[in-house]
User: What shape does this take?
Amino acid sequence: MLSTELERSPVATSLGRVLVVEDEATIRETIVLALRDEGFEALVAEDGYAALGLAHKSDRIDLIVLDVMLPYVNGLDVCRAIRQEGNPVPVLMLSAKGSEPDRIVGLEVGADDYLGKPFGMKELIARCRALLRRRRLTYQEPQNVLRFGDIVMYPQECRVVARGNEIGLSPKEFRILELFLRHPRRVWSREQLLENIWGTDFVGDSKTVDVHIRWLREKLEADPSDPKYLVTVRGFGYRLG
Ligand code: CA
Assistant: This one.
């Protein structure tokens, strides 16, 4: 199978962006091709660490197809970690162990559905479609609105309303706030914020983050000197709420 074939991604018509986490190349590639044939966009991770990294960075993953047996961090721990961060992305768990206890453990750690190997691609696609459909029904707010307290963000319209008033944010401020809103109460270090918002090749120091947080507080907080949204966690970084 040509790798260029795997990298081709139908963007404009994507039905959703699916992260496929599987260490066995043949199975992974088969799933990716099946998803792309059906019009999904597919990202891949070959182990648990890579999966967690992508789940953090890419806040636009609509569904995760997650194998249980993975190197470094297994699928159950990946799922648990994602849920502990408050990430509601639907998870379809895959496992060679189709027995009842494993299925229950999978669902207990926060997976939405469970598929035992071997499975057919038609069934996998049908489950993916069902999970995405269910998700759209659950999140019926107009196109993916993010809320926390009095803050409401409309990501697709690049608009933010805070305490009833529309506020203007720079693109960086917008992206920082979006990251916080997608992971409420998660603590972000300055380095993590730099990496997520400015990228790994940014040369500058973490003071940049502090300055942007200050600007955001001035726009969002009723009293910027006593913030209730963008809270400093001493020695660690910042948190929403
Ligand atoms: Ca595996």
In short: The chain has two domains: 11-138, 141-240.
